[in-house]
Each structure stands twice: as C-alpha cells, then as structure tokens.
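haha ok so turns out i had the wrong file open the whole time. this is the CORRECT one, sorry everyone. sequence first:
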Amino acid sequence: MQTVLVDYHVHPNYSIDAQDVAMEVYCQRALELGLKEICFTPHFECNPRRRHLDWFIRLEGQLIPMEQLEAWVPLYLDEVKRLQDEYGDRLWVGAGIEVGYEEGLEGAIEKLLSSYSFDFVIGSIHCLEDVAISSARESAAYFPCRDVEEILELYSRRMERLIASGFFHTVGHFDIYRRHGEKYFGSRLREREEEYLVPLLKEVAKRGLALEINTSGTKTGTDFFPSTRFLELAREAGVEVCSVGSDAHRPEELGREVEKALGLIKRYGFRLLTRAG
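then structure:
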C-alpha cells in the first residue's frame, strides 16, 4: 500500500513568526512535493503576561490582537475553504490551529474551540514560567538558572494537564524542551527525562490522543520531537496514532523530512493520522 504524504503542522502568514506569504503558495509547493494532505496551523497564544509578545495575528500585513477572534478566525476559515474548493482531489487542505497550552488559560481556549470548528487542533507547550523555551533567545536566559529536575518537573506537570484537558487531537512536539535545553544540560537531560515523561505517554494512550512526530528538530541539528527513543517508548505505552508535521514557517520548510517520519511510523507500528482517520 502506497504511503500518503502529509504535513499537518504548517504555519501560514497568520502566524507572526512565519514568513508573510499566501497560503496558496504552500498549496502549490505541496503539489510540487507530492503531498496529498496539508493542514494549516496558525499559532493561538493567550497568556496575558506575554500579551506584548505573543497575542497577535498577522492579517493583510497588519498585526491585530489575537483575542479579537471575530476579526480573523472567520477570514482564515473562509480562505481555507476556498483553497479546499480550488484544489479539490489534488490536495486536501485543512484548517487547523496550534494552541500554546498553559494552565489557567482554559477559558480562552474553550472560547476559541467552541466558537469555531477546526479540522485539527494541536496542543503544544511553548513556555514555562512565562518564558518561551522554544525560543533560542529566551531560553538562553532561562535554562542556565535552573536545574534539570526543576525543568522536567514544571514541564511534565503542564504536559499532564494539556493531555487531560480534552481540547486537542494531537500532542505537539512532546519533548520540545530538548530544542535548546540539550546544549545546557547534555546527558543529564537524557538520563532524567524518561522518569518524568513516560507516565505521560501512558496518559496519551489512555485518552486516545495522537502524538505528533514534529520534524523541525532537523533544522537545528537535533532529532525529531519526540526523539526516536520516546517514539519507541510511546508504542510500548500503548500510543497507537501519530500525526506528522514539519512545523513549517516558510514554504521551503514544507514537507521537511516527512518521509523519514512516515518510515518511523511504519517501523514502530503506529497508525498515521490523516483526513480519512
């Protein structure tokens, strides 16, 4: 059976950290790459203490406050619907969202997801203690002041609540702390992380969630998120389904290493999350 090439983590121009190019450019690039399904996933961040940093959507070249849902979500969904109609059977185009989860923000997340219908919702952790650990700049001032156990304790507690929230289809970049944390903690991180995170993989399985294989780590010379070791442990824990996403923020990143990710899905016996389920 032929493998379906998909990319379910694509940041269009609505995300302020993405290149300001039209979604149709990604669709054309997807056809060139032989992708059959892509899903756009603009950021949704709603931590009021980071309002000056994260609470914006780019719309027609202008930044507007993200909480003004009616100003951008209907336009985004309508644009994806137009692309779905235009590309038809050549390419399935999904309207997704990537939610930056933090405890205490459930009301804002529920308002978004109850007010609008998305094809796919990623739940991700980007911040600890109001600092973006996914950012090279911010993490450089955060990690050196903390020890491995503190980081893993904070991260695992937040991940536990993300998994239990019931908001999401998939858990995004499960071990994203590795992106910049490995250069500060090295082997100490690898030695301790399983103790904190393996129980959470069992919760992912229990709740029937998908686990994202996020290929963006190759951009900075690290493994996928999660690492291949955690993929093996996830299967042992009973996780059955994986989504695959490049976390593209520009067209040239679309589809990055997805074939390799699909190979891992086959190796460990996961089912690929696709439009057909």
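The chain has a mean pLDDT of 95.
again sry for the mixup
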